[in-house]
Amino acid sequence: MDLGRLILVAVFGGLLGILMMIPLRRAFIVKQHGQLTYPEGTACAKVLIVGEQGGASAQTVFAGFGLAFVYQVLMQALKLWQEYPKKAIVGFKAGSYRSRRARY
Q1: Distance (Å, rounded) from C-alpha 7 to C-alpha 81?
Q2: Would you tell me which of 13, 27, 45, 92 could form a disulfide with 33, CB atoms 3.0–4.6 Å apart?
Q3: Is the pTM of this model over 0.85?
């Protein structure tokens, strides 16, 4: 498959997904809140409902996004700590740590 056809299929597939999700969002997420089987659907419904309510509820969600952003910047951009541990801790079956000097 050539690159032009691949890009065309990807763009049209993305547009089709977006256009189909707009009318189905209310039916599948908002109206079935509390009846959804999977936690991802419940979390998506909660974010959408809070976004529609606005005010203090939306402030809590955006504060969480901000806190997560700051955490990732400190960990990945400034490399203040490692994401994954490196050395095993004696006495703990699955415990491990990584020193600050260790590189990926």
Answers
A1: 39
A2: 45
A3: no
